[in-house]
């Protein structure tokens, strides 16, 4: 009997333990699944897309397109303005009250001036094209800001990575110096010098990390999100533009100015056609009687309303549109020359960056070999500590310069693409 009771109690304890284990496993599984997914790395194109989506020009682009389509439909209408309904009623009830009545109902239809309809359609088409080119030019301006922030972030990442490497190397040297100082191979002054080098490296790392954080926040301000802080340093350059430099007139900034000039010229042509207000065709019917007891008479009226010329107002409007067209054409010529010079300067900068990278990589390779030589001789006691620290600083600087040169080459190619009017890739 007692054995049966003990068996039952043991089974109960086993069931409770199994239930607690199942609950703990479920909670652990839920905790693991509730962890946020790691941030996906961002590239230059993704940052640009996110930044452009936040711009006022992008948010209002569809509304501008709808307005352009509405203007095109208005230019294709039969009348420049909607027709108007006219109603009038005359009576002598307030004075003589002899039963005189007159009721008039009419319609006034505005008419196109000669050439006005075709010029309005041409202006509407030019405005539609100008909306697209203005959006492309705005995209290019956003691309310039994103590229500057992106490559500045890459530069600060390289500086921070170089500062971390320098700190690791100086700490390793300081640990070796401390060991040899305890063994009596080096003086305490050498230990102080090595510790001072570590402190200087720590200060440099703090400064580099502060610059990195500022550059990362600049990207966040542009795109609404910042790249992950754990992304490895170094970034692939944009594709070399190659022969795209020959497509001068395809630059968005030039295309925007061309479309602006086309809109100004279309406005000038339309202003010349609109020398007066639009005439109106009027059709009305009148029903009247002279007094009580008389039969009502009905008449039909057909008339045309022709305004006089615009005079000084028309002359002022025409002169203003011609001035805008002249200004747009002159600005287009200046912008074409500026972009040509900017493209040539960007191409030369790319060539110089390639040469600089090759020299920096040769220097870094030599510095690595020298660091290996002096590290071995320092361990053997053949080189003093100041020389070892100097060689380490030179090797670190050479590595930093090589990594910085890679970023500068990528930034130069990106600036070349910007000068050519190409979007980030």
Task: Outline the structure in words.
The chain is an alpha+beta fold and 425 residues long. The chain contains nine helices and four strands, in the order ααααββαααββαα. The chain has helices spanning 2-34, 44-53, 56-59, 61-75, 116-183, 188-223, 252-273, 312-379, 385-419; strands at 84-91, 101-110, 280-289, 297-305. A four-stranded antiparallel sheet has the order 1-2-3-4, with no helix packed on it. The chain is elongated, with a radius of gyration of 40 Å.
Summarize the structure.
This protein is of the alpha+beta class and 425 residues long. It has helices spanning 2-34, 44-53, 56-59, 61-75, 116-183, 188-223, 252-273, 312-379, 385-419, and strands at residues 84-91, 101-110, 280-289, 297-305. Strand 3 and strand 4 form a beta hairpin.
Question: What is the element layout, followed by pairings?
Answer:
Layout: H1 2-34, H2 44-53, H3 56-59, H4 61-75, E1 84-91, E2 101-110, H5 116-183, H6 188-223, H7 252-273, E3 280-289, E4 297-305, H8 312-379, H9 385-419
Antiparallel strand pairs: 1-2, 2-3, 3-4
Helix pairs in contact: 2-5, 4-5, 5-6, 5-7, 5-9, 7-8, 8-9
């Amino acid at each position: 009997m007692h054995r049966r009771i003990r068996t039952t109690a043991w089974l109960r304890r086993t069931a409770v333990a199994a239930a607690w284990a199942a609950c703990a496993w479920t909670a652990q599984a839920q905790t693991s699944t509730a962890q946020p997914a790691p941030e996906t790395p961002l590239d230059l194109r993704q940052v640009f897309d996110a930044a452009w989506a936040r711009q006022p020009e992008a948010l209002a682009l569809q509304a501008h397109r709808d307005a352009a389509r509405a203007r095109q439909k208005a230019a294709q209408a039969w009348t420049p303005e909607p027709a108007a309904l006219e109603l009038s009623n005359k009576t002598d009830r307030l004075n003589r009250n002899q039963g005189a009545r007159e009721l008039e109902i009419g319609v006034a239809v505005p008419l196109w001036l000669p050439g006005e309809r075709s010029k309005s359609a041409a202006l509407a088409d030019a405005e539609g094209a100008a909306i697209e080119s203005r959006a492309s030019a705005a995209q290019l301006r956003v691309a310039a800001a994103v590229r500057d922030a992106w490559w500045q972030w890459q530069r600060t990442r390289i500086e921070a990575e170089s500062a971390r490497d320098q700190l690791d190397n100086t700490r390793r040297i300081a640990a070796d110096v401390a060991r040899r100082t305890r063994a009596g191979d080096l003086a305490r002054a050498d230990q102080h010098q090595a510790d001072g080098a570590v402190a200087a490296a720590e200060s440099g790392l703090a400064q580099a990390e502060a610059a990195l954080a500022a550059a990362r926040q600049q990207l966040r301000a542009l795109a609404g999100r910042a790249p992950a802080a754990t992304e490895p340093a170094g970034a692939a350059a944009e594709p070399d533009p190659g022969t795209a430099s020959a497509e001068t007139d395809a630059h968005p900034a030039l295309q925007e100015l061309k479309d602006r000039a086309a809109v100004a010229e279309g406005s000038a042509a339309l202003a010349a056609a609109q020398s007066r207000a639009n005439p109106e065709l009027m059709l009305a019917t009148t029903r009247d009687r002279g007094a009580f007891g008389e039969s009502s008479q009905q008449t039909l009226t057909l008339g045309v309303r022709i305004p006089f010329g615009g005079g000084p107002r028309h002359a002022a409007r025409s002169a203003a549109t011609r001035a805008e067209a002249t200004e747009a054409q002159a600005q287009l010529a200046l912008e074409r020359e500026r972009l040509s010079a900017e493209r040539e300067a960007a191409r030369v900068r790319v060539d110089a960056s390639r040469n600089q990278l090759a020299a920096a990589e040769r220097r870094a390779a030599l510095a690595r070999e020298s660091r290996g030589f002096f590290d071995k001789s320092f361990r053997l006691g053949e080189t003093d500590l100041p020389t070892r620290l100097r060689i380490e600083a030179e090797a670190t600087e050479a590595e930093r310069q090589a990594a910085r040169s890679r970023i500068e080459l990528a930034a130069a190619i990106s600036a070349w693409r910007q000068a050519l009017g190409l979007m980030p890739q």
